[in-house]
């Protein structure tokens, strides 16, 4: 059976939400956002390991939240993050079980991922080595120059907005991070590091509901969804 290691970076702040509480620990319907997120993965049969990446001051807080999840066949632990997201994932990779076939990375504040999308990403990652969820871009996109003038308008039919979880064969992700660290390369997401390795990444069609809670409007939408109004 396929064995999956899931990394959830949860060291983000609430600055853009205008809140003092770090985003993963904001409550929706009596549970924190990160607990809602973990709910979507904890019953996936392939899950063998769960690594939560937290800032040093929140490690005990995360451990307390994890005590509510009971699945004896999953190795659950908390690791300390780094200065940037890429550093945090790099730290987490040191703790990935060598018996895992795949490694998935999912944002702590994307609590509405659908399980069928996760399962499809797992299947495609086993087939192609790398799979990520995404949705077609709805708006027209413009490429600007340094003076804020339009340089070009890309064909929207080829543009997709990428989400998480991003799933990779374990060795591919390790090689991608090693190469990035050696080159000083910083990617905008984990798949960009895998692309830098020369590996083709397969995109699985996801849902617009799998949004990242970043701004106050996102939090309001999340509250409405949890309350069953959307």
Describe it.
- It contains seven helices and twelve strands.
- It has 230 residues and is an alpha/beta fold.
- Strands 1, 4, 5, 6, 7, 10, 11 and 12 form an eight-stranded mixed beta sheet that branches. Strands 2-3 form a two-stranded antiparallel sheet. The chain has a two-stranded antiparallel sheet with strand order 8-9.
- Helix 5 crosses helix 6 (190-196).
- The longest helix has 14 residues, at 115-128.
Keywords:
230 residues, alpha/beta, eight-stranded mixed β-sheet, two-stranded antiparallel ribbon, 30% helix, 22% strand, globular
Mean pLDDT level:
94
Number of strands: 12
* Main sheet record: 8 strands, mixed
Spans where pLDDT lies below 50 across 5 or more residues: none
Radius of gyration: 18 Å
Q: What is the CA–CA distance across the termini?
A: 36 Å
Number of helices: 7
Overall SS class: alpha/beta
Shape: globular
Listing every helix as H and every strand as E from the N terminus to the C terminus, the arrangement reads EEEHEHEHEHEEEEEHHEH
Q: Give the percentage of residues in beta strands.
A: 15-25%
């Amino acid at each position: 059976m396929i064995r999956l290691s899931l990394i959830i970076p949860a060291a983000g702040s609430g600055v853009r939400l205008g809140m003092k509480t770090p985003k993963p620990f904001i409550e929706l319907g009596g549970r924190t956002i990160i607990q809602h997120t973990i709910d979507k993965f904890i019953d996936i049969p392939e899950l063998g390991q769960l690594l939560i990446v937290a800032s040093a001051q929140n490690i005990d807080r995360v451990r307390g939240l994890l005590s509510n999840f009971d699945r004896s066949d999953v190795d659950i632990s908390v690791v300390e993050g780094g200065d940037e997201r890429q550093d945090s994932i790099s730290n987490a990779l040191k703790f990935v079980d060598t018996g895992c076939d795949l490694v998935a990375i999912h944002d702590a504040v994307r609590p509405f991922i659908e399980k069928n999308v996760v399962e499809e990403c797992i299947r495609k990652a086993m087939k192609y080595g790398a799979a990520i969820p995404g949705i077609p871009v709805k708006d027209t996109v413009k490429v600007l120059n340094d003076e804020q003038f339009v340089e070009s308008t890309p064909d929207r039919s080829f543009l997709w907005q990428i989400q998480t979880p991003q799933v990779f064969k374990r060795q591919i992700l390790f090689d991608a991070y090693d190469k990035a660290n050696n080159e000083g390369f910083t990617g905008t997401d984990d798949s960009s590091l895998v692309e830098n390795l020369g590996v083709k990444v397969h995109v699985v069609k996801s849902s617009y509901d799998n949004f990242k809670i970043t701004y106050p409007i996102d939090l309001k939408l999340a509250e409405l969804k949890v309350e069953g109004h959307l």
